[in-house]
Amino acid sequence: MYLEQYGGSSDVWLTKVLFRMRLFYNDLYLKVAQADFRNFQRICRLEWTTLERWHSENNFQTHGVTQKNALRAYFLAAANIFEPDRAEERLVWARTAMLAQAFSWPLQRNDYIDIMREDLH
């Protein structure tokens, strides 16, 4: 993880000479980045709890959407929409992905055509 590798004011870049970048690498930036990361993790946990509850309340498991699929949909959304104030967009993205998977799940089953033929007769 980048934040774990970031050295703050003790970072040194080796080029032709030993060079300290005090304007870019300092402990204040490190603390701000860590606080921002912790805040985003907190937001993500709250959003995931909401999405997990929505998954179980709507019985998505019976429609082929596992909890792992729901988590993958959420993290795909969180990786692309990472601004904290865009939480609603992340949840809508994840819910849409889950709904799309639930709708396409019967089509992926091998016995779907047989079931449809039986329903027609």
TrEMBL record:
Keywords: Magnesium, Metal-binding. It comes from the Eukaryota. Signal peptide: none annotated. One of its GO terms (biological process) is gibberellin biosynthetic process. One of its GO terms (molecular function) is terpene synthase activity. Its cofactor is Mg(2+). One of its GO terms (cellular component) is chloroplast. SUPFAM superfamilies: Terpenoid synthases (SSF48576). This is Terpene synthase metal-binding domain-containing protein. It comes from Oryza meyeriana var. granulata.
